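To whoever is on call:

I kicked off a structure prediction for a single chain this morning and the downstream step that reads the tokens threw a length-mismatch warning. I double-checked the sequence; it's 529 residues and nothing unusual in it as far as I can see. Pasting both halves so you can look.
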Amino acid sequence: MSANENANAAAARLNRFKNKGKDTTEMRRRRIEVNVELRKAKKDDQMLKRRNVSTLPDDATSPLQENRSNQVSAHWTVEEIVKGVNSNNMELQLQATQAARKLLSREKQPPIDNIIRAGLIPKFVSFLGRADCSPIQFESAWALTNIASGTSEQTKAVVDGGAIPAFISLLASPHAHISEQAVWALGNIAGDGSTYRDLVIKFGAITPLLSLLAVPDLSSLASGYLRNVTWTLSNLCRNKNPAPPIEAIEQILPTLVRLLHHDDHEVLADTCWALSYLTDGSNDRIEVVVKTGLVPQLVKLLGCSELPIMTPSLRAIGNIVTGTDEQTQIVIDSGALSVFPSLLSHHKSNIQKEAAWTMSNITAGRQDQIQRVVDHGLVPYLIGILRKGDFKSQKEAVWAVTNYTSGGTTEQIVYLVQAGVVEPLLNLLSAKDSKTVLVILDAISNIFLTAEKINETEKLCLMIEECGGLDKIEALQSHENEQVYKASSTLIEKYFSAEDEEDQNVVPESTAASYTFQIQGNAPDTFNF
């Protein structure tokens, strides 16, 4: 989107808010559009694909001792591997497959394309079915997992070789390490994107995957095994356009709810990522998640100090409040707002940014929801971000404040001004981003509408002048963006022209005793009742 298109989109909001009340659905959807890049950029916080580069104890793979076969398979060329795999000798096939696995497990530049070009994938897939020789099942599963951890083209080669149904069959292997390798491979394939994710689902992976966790106590499972299954389930929830089939999500959710109460930090992090993907969509998608009753536990995890858990739980909570007022209310009723002082002042700017984005969707809600933001003392934290946050966080805080001014009561907007919002808001008018500038002008316009209602326009004008805001608004009249200079000119003409000042002289004193704004001598940016 160009700067002009951005500005036009924001101008459309400006006009809508000026003319009528606000449409919270549009406001919230707007926030989703604005933050698409925010969420896309952070996808890599959770790995899409993982390569198995671990080494095993000597006897883990097979009755063949690894140290003996090491001597045989340590320096095989791809040509030697092809020869071994195509021989009729089972032990030679196993050694060759193991040699391939070792090449593919190299830390640096594994020769994935050479293995694919050598035509080995169909052979490895056939070895997955060799229940009479579990070591070759394991070695071929590991090799294919690492090929599928590569590029989309490399993953495609594995899928085209018929690996998905073969791996799904292996989930039921009596050998835990083979079953786990199949889980991992399916996770890599599903993590490639929505097409392969849906193919894994279509081939029937969900039921056998979930059955691996169908034990009375999850703690009885090896932690690495549980982590792998959780990660693969999260990849089945991942990606949009299209989102996963709703029936699949409903099948997975009860297990995610259970995992959300586990104590392993990696399991919790990946479960929260899964929920952040599932809530990243339409209100009916959000509802499927919310109706499971998991929001209070998600809020509990939001308050933990572990960044790998806090990040995706904040994303999920932030997504939920892009939904309906009722969905937002469940988040509020679960106690989420009490966590936000620490989130809005977090040392990680990304947490601050996402927390401010979440606040912007709550302030896009009902007046009683705005009041809960006020009651939890969160307005000063938003103003703190406007003053000294990084620019991405400041942009989100600007939206939070503008949404607040669009839907807040007179009293709530008076409180916002009293808390000192005007000066830091005006200081951000020097931002290079036209869209942000327009959103700020929108907020200033909304505050003026409130000042007009209580006959305090002149005091607001004075406050803006005294903190240097008038100069900034005037400077915008020569802005390159048409929407910006029109919006700034409108504010100047309406509130700061000479005619307007004369009009002010004949305006009678306010009779609304509940709101007399008074400017403190040395603090021009605060109103007092």
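Update from on-call: the warning came from a stale cache, not from the record. Cleared it. Sanity check on the structure: The CA atoms of residues 364 and 403 lie 5 Å apart.
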